[in-house]
Amino acid sequence: MNINKFVMPEVIFGNDAIHLVGESCFRLGAKRPLIVSDFGVSDVGWLEIVIQSCQKAGLHSAIYYDITTNPKDYEVEAGQKIYLEHECDSIIGVGGGSAIDTAKAIAIVVTNGGTIQDYEGVDEIDEPLPPLVMVATTAGSGSEVSQFSVIVDSTRKKKMTIVSKSLVPDIAIIDPQTLTTKSPQLTASTGLDVLTHAIEAYVSIASTALTDVQAKNAISLVANYLRPSVASSLNTEAKHHMAMASLQAGLAFSNAILGAVHAMSHAIGGRFPLLHGEVNSVLLPHVMEFNFLAVPKKFMTIAELCGENIRNMTEVEAGRKAIHFVKQLSLDIGVPQRLSDMGLDDEMIAEMSQIALDDACMITNPRDITVTDVQHLFKQAL
Ligand SMILES: [Fe+2]
Questions:
Q1: Which of 129, 214, 122, 215 is nearest to 170 (CA)?
Q2: What are the φ and ψ backbone dihedral angles of 60, each rounded to 5 degrees?
Q3: From ligand 1's centre to the CA of 259, what distance in Å?
Q4: What does the alpha-carbon distance between residue 231 and residue 332 come to, in Å, rounded to a whole number?
Q5: What is the pLDDT of residues 312-325, one digit of tens each?
Q6: Contacts of 38 (CB under 8 A, 6+ apart)
Q7: CB 84 within 8 Å of CB 109
Q8: What is the pTM of this model?
Q9: For 300, which of 111, 210, 219, 318 could close a Cys bridge (C-beta 3.0–4.6 Å)?
Q10: 100-112 burial string, b = 16+ CB within 10 Å, else e?
Q11: 198 C-alpha to ligand 1 centroid (Å)
Q12: pLDDT digits (tens, 9 = 90+) for 101-113
């Protein structure tokens, strides 16, 4: 018998949802949350709203917002220290993937002990985590609903992928209004990360009927609304749809896992301080070309979801349309087109290729892949 599992948190979605964070945390029995965020979120005022919401709910919160892009093991340690010093009993993450992944990682070590390195891989967490409420302010990482946390091991210069159902937060709060304060560059790169999540989850060998419905809707929403969302910070309709796309892509990849794009981009992100979404957007068309052979029917559906007219086309012709659509979208929204534009060169290929091959996300890639294939893909993307 084929058994499918689908995990997700309670989801609170809509404008002003951010004001419900305090009462959401209170409902979980928490009294002293640690709020984990970053300077960017603080600068535009979202952190202050969360702090006030917690005060209103009678919570005594501690705050840690010294988080960088591609969060590091020592940032998890620093957060753990604050959690223990303030005798916290719960964690609220506010931000994009960096803040939320760090919040989850702190939750692991405060109840399970050791260092975050001890939990790299799949299902290594034994003890339950404290109550977790995550507020997503980018569309985005999907981390607010996922069973993933990705943290850089600063000694090995490697992104560690931690996968466990324990990491699915109790409550995810998604307020599309928070997207209006993002720069066009960040909107573009995080939006292409959403598309990568949706496409990788859809073609993953672990995809199911439950993940497909989420992934397909996310692809269609990104195809229709990423351009206008990048073009105008005030386009609330586009922000709403991109927030939903991010949520649905997050639900899809949390349960179907990802593929070669994320495996390769994790390998790069451990060593170079680059935007995760930009690296993914460069890699995505190349990996799609590679994977096309394994799942041509699904590529035909992707083309259709992107609004391409595929009538009277063969699977191969329609699939190529999907790849072309992704390339054109990334050109239109102005993200870098090559890894060399981002400062990478071919010296990194050998080392990065083996690291990518060993990443947990590579397991669900739809086409068998060797280290030579990964090297070839990196070379194409340079
Ligand atoms: Fe991602």
A1: 129
A2: -105, 100
A3: 10
A4: 10
A5: 999 999 999 999 99
A6: 65, 66, 67, 68, 95, 96, 98, 99
A7: no
A8: 0.94
A9: 318
A10: bbbbbbbbbbbeb
A11: 10
A12: 999 999 999 999 9
